[in-house]
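$ ./design --mode recover --in tokens.txt
reading tokens...
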């Protein structure tokens, strides 16, 4: 047996045992095609006939054989289907020779080959390749199974595959150790050993600490003192990183592998690291140095972007307020002037009218009197000339005292410099920059250590900025120059034209994709593995889409003209409006009355019950793959799940709980609660529910699985670079956004935490690609989760994207220039395309689009990382333009279907409502810390959210188990029918019968003064 445990006991037994089918699956897999049916008919004995059909059905389902193991229910079913008496079937008489002969027939029909020596060599080679980018043995095992299936090779036993993986891991580890052994000199070894030595604490802390401990935890704060501390750590780490860079290049470790080794150091106590074998210890320490360097570099760039954006926002708001005040002051002066002019003019005019009307005066006397009235002496305050002069003086004063945007930016420069000056000075930017003039200015700034003068390059500035960089007295405005430089750096990093040389988040887009040379050499293989072969021909794909667009226009318009779509109306300006009436309520039993009404199920009981049914705690494996220590008790894991998921915190939970030791809980959280483990535990519950028959009641008749995702703003109570402002939802506090994914059966299969300032659209594909258990057919989001680029990606990934778009009637519709549907000259009613698709933009970038999608499909890089870099680029990036242009095609098809199909619209609304229900359940579960994350790092926030999702899935699973128990209680068909109807028309997402608030202790000892007051 291999030392490393890849599958747990349950998973191993499931793999080695024949599949367990429900009634629908049994009918599907045991219905043989004509050729196999004829082969079965030629068999003589009833036993051979039945066993042949069952063996073929098992292979059709799992692509492997099970050494003459059969489920009796399957034997009975097949015997009835082929007309054989069950008493005539004896599986023990099914001999090995017949079994092997039947194997060959089945393999030949399905086009598969046995797992022979050549297949073993192929699998071993592929596993060694996977190890370079993926370090989770379980993922490698699953990917190997998929690869063998694609290559039409029957799967061997678990032990064979596990042994190959363990052998490859050991060979890989030995190879790494050999590189370490030969690549490090004595001085470098001493440098690594020094990290495990004690040094004096910094500042007022004079305690002795291990040097490496000081480098383990970076601050998430944007305060200048914390930034300087991080910069000091980065300087130390960067020196080590550059020292060991040649060895790192030889090791060729992926970021995932670096992270695994690094976290083994971060999680471990220093003596545990010191006890490792020499080469293994050095490997872990080098990985720690590289991982922490890249991570800290990215964190500081995040600080730079946040600080610059904060300065821009503050300057803009202050400038807007000053402009508003200036306008108010000018308006007041104008009003006073007009009032004064009006009063003087009216009084003079009245005097003139009186003089003219005076009958006793001659004409000459009237002229003299009028002249005297016009030139009468007035006070300084009311004179017309004086008022005009006063207005001129006020206007001049406002112009002289007025503060422009760049003046305000200059005032904020010192504060900005305190946060980002050293970051720009220490950052190592890639010389391959899209803005060489900016890079020249950065290099000059770094050479001068930030002490710049009028000799600093200004060519990267705009003409307006260059004119303002020198004051009227000829003095070079250093503070303004630095502020403008920081703004330009931040903008260039966000736009992707300026990249970091040593970074994980801020490298060029091409670095994250399948290497171009590798793609060109193995394009067909990549397309096959990514299941993109059907799209390899650009013109054939566009032609098929052109036909689909024409058909959709025609069908939608014909139905509207025929009066079949009363909910669609067209406005005079060419836009349209479509209404979606609510689904009619069905009078049925409420599920709330089915669940326990007078008994509240404790959360601990629910977790334990579902674990007994699913074994999800088995997924919590120790971080060290070869760890063989006994796992902590179940209750400790449940305590950890509740501490994270309910936002209580492990220290508080341990102190307010019985039979939970704080140190034991802390150790369990440290070593067992990884993001991968929490996700796998969720998947285990989902796998269990996926096999149940009750959840399928919520499926549509066509069998398609409709899913949805949406974001929920959540506060963050500690310093976090993953938190940002969202005034609409969080007021003046910072927070994050939790994106939850749910299917129509209320199963929550994925979630992630992003900054509250980010759009959700780039992360939609991440959830859809987390499809080991839940495979979505149709996915819905609200407007925040939609973009035309996402439409393009979901098309290639074979998902139907169905968002609810705000202002849908104002969206532009498209058609193909060579198609039947034209943008002009149409007399027909209904929809008309607004514009034509620019096929040339898509066709010229077709291969790059396929490379981009293949990178996502093969999980070489997360979709969100690719989309972040792609979206950050200028919108003139050819790949961005091509994906956006192509995305207009599926978007048009969706809009036409949405406007034409009432049931489709209602399904979207219904599914999005389920996400809202999931968000309400999250609030009910999150008891502590005012529903806010108490974790600063994004990964810790993801773990906490994963635990909350684990609790939600546990409650849903418990409800399904309870409903299954109720359905199986008796043989009252009327009661069963009533209950099934209640399930179909109600939601299983109910939690009022659970005790989520804990229990109160009113024992006498709790009334004793414990602190001696």
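writing sequence...
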């Amino acid at each position: 047996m291999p030392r490393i445990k890849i599958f747990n006991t349950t998973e191993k037994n499931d793999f080695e045992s024949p599949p367990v089918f429900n009634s629908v699956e049994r009918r599907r897999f045991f219905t043989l095609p004509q050729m196999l049916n004829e082969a079965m008919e030629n068999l003589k004995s009833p036993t051979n006939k039945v066993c042949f059909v069952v063996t073929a059905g098992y292979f059709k389902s799992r692509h492997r054989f099970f050494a003459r193991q059969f489920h009796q229910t399957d034997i009975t079913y097949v015997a009835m289907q082929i007309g054989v008496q069950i008493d005539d079937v004896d599986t023990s008489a099914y001999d090995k020779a017949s079994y092997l002969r039947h194997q060959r027939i089945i393999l030949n029909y399905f086009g598969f080959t046995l797992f022979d020596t050549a297949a073993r060599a192929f699998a071993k080679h592929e596993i060694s390749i996977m190890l370079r980018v993926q370090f989770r043995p379980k993922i490698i095992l699953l990917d190997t199974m998929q690869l063998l299936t694609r290559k039409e090779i029957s799967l061997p036993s678990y032990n064979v595959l596990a042994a190959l993986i363990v052998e490859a891991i050991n060979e890989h580890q030995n190879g790494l150790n050999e590189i370490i052994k030969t690549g490090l000199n004595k001085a470098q070894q001493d440098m690594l050993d020094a990290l495990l030595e004690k040094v004096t604490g910094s500042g007022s802390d004079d305690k002795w600490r291990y040097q490496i401990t000081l480098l383990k935890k970076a601050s998430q704060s944007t305060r200048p003192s914390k930034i300087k501390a991080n910069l000091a750590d980065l300087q130390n780490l960067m020196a080590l990183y550059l020292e060991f860079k040649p060895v790192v290049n030889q090791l060729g470790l992926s970021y995932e592998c670096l992270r695994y080794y690094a976290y083994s150091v971060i999680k471990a106590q220093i003596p545990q690291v010191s006890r490792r074998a020499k080469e293994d210890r050095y490997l872990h320490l080098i990985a720690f140095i590289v991982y922490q360097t890249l991570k800290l570099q990215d964190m500081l760039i995040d600080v730079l972007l946040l600080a610059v954006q904060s300065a821009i926002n503050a300057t803009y708001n202050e400038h807007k307020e000053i402009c508003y005040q200036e306008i108010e002051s000018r308006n007041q002066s104008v009003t006073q002037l007009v009032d004064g002019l009006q009063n003087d003019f009216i009084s003079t005019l009245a005097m003139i009218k009186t003089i003219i009307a005076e009958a006793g005066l001659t004409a000459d006397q009237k002229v003299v009197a009028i002249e005297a009235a016009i030139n009468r002496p007035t006070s300084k305050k009311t004179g017309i000339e004086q008022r005009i002069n006063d207005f001129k003086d006020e206007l001049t004063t406002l112009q002289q005292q007025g503060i422009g945007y760049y003046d305000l930016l200059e005032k904020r420069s010192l504060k900005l410099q305190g946060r980002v000056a050293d970051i720009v000075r220490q950052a190592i930017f890639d010389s391959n920059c899209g803005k060489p003039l900016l890079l020249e200015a950065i290099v000059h700034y770094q050479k001068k250590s930030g002490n710049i003068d009028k000799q600093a390059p200004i060519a990267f500035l705009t003409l307006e900025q260059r004119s303002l960089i020198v004051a009227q007295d000829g003095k070079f405005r250093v503070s303004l120059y630095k502020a403008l430089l920081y703004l330009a750096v931040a903008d260039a990093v966000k736009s992707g034209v300026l990249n970091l040389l040593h970074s994980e988040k801020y490298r060029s887009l091409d670095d994250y994709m399948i290497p171009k040379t590798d793609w060109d050499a193995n394009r067909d293989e990549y397309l096959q593995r990514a299941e993109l072969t059907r799209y390899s021909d650009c013109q054939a794909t566009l032609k098929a889409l052109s036909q689909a667009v024409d058909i959709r226009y025609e069908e939608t318009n014909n139905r509207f003209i025929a009066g079949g779509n009363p909910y669609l109306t067209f406005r005079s300006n060419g836009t349209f409006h479509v209404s979606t009436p609510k689904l009619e309520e069905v009078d049925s039993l409420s599920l709330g009355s089915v669940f326990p009404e007078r008994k509240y199920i404790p959360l601990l009981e629910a977790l334990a019950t579902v674990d007994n049914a699913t074994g999800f705690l088995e997924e919590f494996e120790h971080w060290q793959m070869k760890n063989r220590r006994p796992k902590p008790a179940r209750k400790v894991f449940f305590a950890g799940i509740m501490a994270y998921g309910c936002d209580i915190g492990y220290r508080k939970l341990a102190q307010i709980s019985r039979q939970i030791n704080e140190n034991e809980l802390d150790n369990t959280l440290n070593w067992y609660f990884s993001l991968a483990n929490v996700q796998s535990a969720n998947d285990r519950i989902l796998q269990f529910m996926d096999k149940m028959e009750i959840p399928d009641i919520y499926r549509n008749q066509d069998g398609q699985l409709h899913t949805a995702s949406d974001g929920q703003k959540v506060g963050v109570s500690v310093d976090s670079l993953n938190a940002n402002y969202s005034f609409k939802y969080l007021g003046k506090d910072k927070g994050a956004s939790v994106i939850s994914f749910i299917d129509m059966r209320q199963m929550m299969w994925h979630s992630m935490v992003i900054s509250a300032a980010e759009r959700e659209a780039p992360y939609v594909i991440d959830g859809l690609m987390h499809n080991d258990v839940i495979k979505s057919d149709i996915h819905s989001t609200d407007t925040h989760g939609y973009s035309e680029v996402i439409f393009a990606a979901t098309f290639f990934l074979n998902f139907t994207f169905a968002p609810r778009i705000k202002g849908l009637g104002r969206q532009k519709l498209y058609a193909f220039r060579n198609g039947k549907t034209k943008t002009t000259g149409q007399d027909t009613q209904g929809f008309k395309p607004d514009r034509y698709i620019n096929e040339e933009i898509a066709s010229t970038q077709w291969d790059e689009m396929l490379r981009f999608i293949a990178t996502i499909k093969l999980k070489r890089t997360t979709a969100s990382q690719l989309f972040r870099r792609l979206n950050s680029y200028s919108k003139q990036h050819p790949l961005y333009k091509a994906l956006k242009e192509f995305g207009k095609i599926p978007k048009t098809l969706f809009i036409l279907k949405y406007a034409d199909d009432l049931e489709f619209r209602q399904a979207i609304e219904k599914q999005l409502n389920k996400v809202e229900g999931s968000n309400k359940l999250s609030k009910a579960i999150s008891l502590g810390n005012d529903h806010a994350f108490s974790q600063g790092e994004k990964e810790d926030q993801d773990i906490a959210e994963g635990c909350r999702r684990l609790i939600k899935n546990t409650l849903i699973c418990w409800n399904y188990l309870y409903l299954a128990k109720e359905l199986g209680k008796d043989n009252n068909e009327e009661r069963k029918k009533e209950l099934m109807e209640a399930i179909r028309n109600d939601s299983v997402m109910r939690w009022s019968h659970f005790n989520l608030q804990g229990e109160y202790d009113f024992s006498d000892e709790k009334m004793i003064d414990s602190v001696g007051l």
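exit 0
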